[in-house]
Amino acid sequence: MKCFVWSQFLYASKTWTLNKNTEKRIEAIEMWIYRRMQRISWKEKVTNKKVLESVGLQRPELLLTIQRRKMKYYSHLRRHDSIQKRILEGKIDGRRGRGQRRQTWLGKMKMCEVCETALDRRRWRTMTTHLGDGMAPS
Fold this sequence. Notes:
Order of helices and strands: HHHHHEEHH
Mean pLDDT: 79
Helix content: 55-70%
Largest sheet: 2 strands, antiparallel
Shape: elongated
Low-confidence stretches: none
Strand content: under 5%
């Protein structure tokens, strides 16, 4: 599955915009693939937890892989001066609309913290390695 399906699915995933709906769909397709591999019908009412146990996993991996790739790509862009960096960090003149939330990265860190951390390769690698563990970056 990782050889044939994931390689096609993950193509250019580091440039995707992830939101809650997209994340739900990614997890749904991963669970669908596992169910197809195990020949488990949706009519059998088997929970996702049981399906993951039968495959030998504790939690879905596909979304974490995409998030790690996105983080590595951002770190790469942040450290090198390129047109992509200028586009990514471009500023828009004017004021932010009333009531909008401040921009965060993966719902954990503020953008300025992410920018600083991305410049230190060792700290960034530690943070991306422990992305799904719930550990806070140091």
